[in-house]
């Protein structure tokens, strides 16, 4: 395929399964937005805090379940996880529709069922994100992430307006019923997908729940590039959440609109996002990832200011168009950044942490903005949120995203099989791995500096502790020691967890060794009988 075709924002549509899932997801997202409008409008006559709790009820499960969902997606077949989530959400939406038709849907029950739907979303989120590299090539993950945002925002352009019209004409029960049926499309495509056999058995299946959770946390903590993506997400989401949390109140209280008018405002955001998809490739070339983050936050600050000060529906709708563009630009940039930095063995868990920050941040920020609106007024809350977005834009210079060109998360099985005289059990441990290096005196400082990157690699892939020691009797002799909790963990380092980037870090450090003297590796097993102590 030509370079121009590869750079096209629509290039991922060449993959048949990605295209089918995108269409099915669009229908499902339209149903979700119809339901959101129906749920929020049933509560719009109550306090601002109660209205914003709809967003909290939908997003809070991510805070509670994102990490366990990531473990599930790394341990079990991801397609099965996704299909299970679809049918579970279909059942909950069906109950929601029946209760609405019977006029038996109290605010408490509505929020509880919305929370259960959020649990389904939390379960499928890491698995959905983790299968994207199976659907499109790595170099197209940015376009795929943008198309995912287009999907959500196209649904936002159609779903709220359609939902508002249906609520006004026939009641909220019908939007809940449509949402229930919309899950069938994704389930059908997933069940018909002929997934490669090599992708059906995630490599983390041997890990226990707590060990897998710890491995995911350990990887993210020792991956500076991933941590920086999470920081940028955390700095953008709280201010951005104010728009979604307070827009229904802006529509009803500030602009005097009904459910249909509120739906049209959300449609304006969605239309801006869809239009923004055409501009994203050029924006990336002109601004780069960090420029998009800064400009996107500035645009959001301006839109929130307009919402706080302008009371003409047409002007507000016009101002919401660039909000949609900024939203898709920032989120697709962050999503692609985290996707390209995670290896397959921990991808779902790393993405679970990202979703925890992203969706959990929205869930926790929404009631805070509602409380501020009740306390200081709606306009003041919107202006404060705009100020938060200005701070987010200003912080890009201090904490920019790091370039990803040097990161290659492809698996690398470059360590030789350990030449042991006995075969330890999988649970045997802890294991002390020692590597002896010979380094010329004039290269000691540079070698030590390069080994710090090797240290992060060891910790990412399983080391509980790490140290580099210089022999007091022989200054050219260095000993690297790191402790792994079990033999199974160390075997996973050998055959699953190391990446091409880890290999490069090792090769750069070993290039400084005394020529002709290879490192000596030994493996020692604990004989004291005590278990490994996790930090």
TrEMBL record:
Keywords: Cell membrane, Membrane, Transmembrane, Transmembrane helix, Transport. This is MFS transporter. Its main location: membrane. It is a multi-pass membrane protein. Residues 1-404 form the Major facilitator superfamily (MFS) profile domain. SUPFAM superfamilies: MFS general substrate transporter. The chain crosses the membrane at residues 48-68, 80-102, 108-128, 165-193, 229-247, 259-280, 292-310, 316-338, 350-369, 375-394. It is found in: Cell membrane.
């Amino acid at each position: 395929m030509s370079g121009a075709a590869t750079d096209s924002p629509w290039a991922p549509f060449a993959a048949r399964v990605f295209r089918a899932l995108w269409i099915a997801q669009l229908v499902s997202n339209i149903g979700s937005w119809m339901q959101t409008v129906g749920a929020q409008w049933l509560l719009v006559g109550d306090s601002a805090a109660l209205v914003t709790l709809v967003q909290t009820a939908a997003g809070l499960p991510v805070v509670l379940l994102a990490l366990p969902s990531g473990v599930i997606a790394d341990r079990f077949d991801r397609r099965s996880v996704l299909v299970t989530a679809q049918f579970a959400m279909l059942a909950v939406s069906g109950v929601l529709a029946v209760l609405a038709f019977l006029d038996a849907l109290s605010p408490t029950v509505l929020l509880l069922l919305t929370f259960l739907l959020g649990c389904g979303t939390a379960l499928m989120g890491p698995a959905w994100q983790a299968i994207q590299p199976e659907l499109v090539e790595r170099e197209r993950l940015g376009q795929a992430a943008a198309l995912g945002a287009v999907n959500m925002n196209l649904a936002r352009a159609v779903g709220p307006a359609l939902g508002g019209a249906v609520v006004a004409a026939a009641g909220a029960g019908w939007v809940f019923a449509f949402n229930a049926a919309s899950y069938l499309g994704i389930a059908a495509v997933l069940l018909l997908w002929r997934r490669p056999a090599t992708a059906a058995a995630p490599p983390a299946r041997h890990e226990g729940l707590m060990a897998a959770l710890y491995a995911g946390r350990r990887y993210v903590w020792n991956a500076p590039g991933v941590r920086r993506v999470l920081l940028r997400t955390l700095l953008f989401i709280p201010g951005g959440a104010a728009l979604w949390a307070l827009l229904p109140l802006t529509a009803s209280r500030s602009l005097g609109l009904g459910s249909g008018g509120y739906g049209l405002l959300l449609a304006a955001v969605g239309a801006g996002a869809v239009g923004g998809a055409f501009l994203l490739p050029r924006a990336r070339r002109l601004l780069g990832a960090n420029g998009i983050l800064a400009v996107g936050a500035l645009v959001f600050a301006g839109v929130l200011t307009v919402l706080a000060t302008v009371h003409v529906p047409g002007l507000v709708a016009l101002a919401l168009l660039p909000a949609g563009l900024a939203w898709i630009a920032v989120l697709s940039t962050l999503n692609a950044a985290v996707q390209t930095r995670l290896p397959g063995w921990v991808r779902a868990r790393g993405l679970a942490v990202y979703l925890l920050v992203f969706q959990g941040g929205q869930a926790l920020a929404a009631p805070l903005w509602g409380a501020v609106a009740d306390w200081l007024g709606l306009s003041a809350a919107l202006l404060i949120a705009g100020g938060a977005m200005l701070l987010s834009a200003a912080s890009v210079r201090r904490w920019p995203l790091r370039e990803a060109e040097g990161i290659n998360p492809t698996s690398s099985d470059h360590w030789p099989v350990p030449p042991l005289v006995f075969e330890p059990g999988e649970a045997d441990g802890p294991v002390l791995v020692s590597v002896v290096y010979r380094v010329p005196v004039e290269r000691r400082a540079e070698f030590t500096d390069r080994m710090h990157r090797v240290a992060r690699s060891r910790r990412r892939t399983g080391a509980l502790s790490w140290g580099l020691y210089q022999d007091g009797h022989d200054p050219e002799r260095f000993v690297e020691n790191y402790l792994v909790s079990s033999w199974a963990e160390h075997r996973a380092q050998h055959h699953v967890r190391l990446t091409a980037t880890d290999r490069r870090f090792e090769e750069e450090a070993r290039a400084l060794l005394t020529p002709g003297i290879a490192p000596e590796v030994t493996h020692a097993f604990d004989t004291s009988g005590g278990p490994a102590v996790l930090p």
